[in-house]
Amino acid sequence: MSLDLPLSFLERPATAGTTEPWLLVLLHGVGSNEQDLFGLTPHVPPQFHVLSLRAPYTMGPRAYAWFQFAVTPRGERSIDEAQEAASRKLLAQTVAAAAQQLDVAPGRVVVGGFSQGGIMSLSLLLTEPQLLHAAMVLHSRLLPQVLPLAAPAQALQGKQLWISHGLQDQMIPLASAHAAREHVSHLPLTLRYAEFPGGHEIRPAELQAAMQWLNEIRTVATAQR
Known about the structure:
The chain is of the alpha/beta class. It has 5 helices and 11 strands; from the N terminus they run E-E-H-E-E-E-E-E-H-E-H-E-E-H-E-H. It is globular.
């Protein structure tokens, strides 16, 4: 079927005949596009529909962002809060529409992203947990701007969260992953946290571990129904 979604996307369907397929929505980092994380699809379990979305703000030729940001000489970050809010709304609409059109219940939806895409994934889980079962956050950080908008803690009961980071990440410091881990440790969700050698990139060991986690949460959720 042809999907009608608010954001541009690339799609890989789940294997034909899959009963109760899952949906994985992938979000690229700043300055990239939907082709980037779509390259991961050969590694994604075949029971997943995969959608790789294009962020709405154009930075240059085939370069997009979920929101503009700036870094001060002291390393402090500021973001365009209006753009972030608009992107988060578009993302929520896209995830909901895709799940509905593919007939995938929210309990079988995972949203995952790298860098700025990971920010959006984590923000969506915290603010709109009813739309998804899990978030996969790679080399990213927690936005303080979304914390006042977070859903009540009990709404995260039973949700799953993956956070991984590079030990030598030069773009988003490892401390950002530690801060996100500390924040969610007080929430009633299940966190899988991992650190890997390397910088601001997804290396094979990290990809393999993240895909294994995806398969595990699918298997556990299926067994519990």
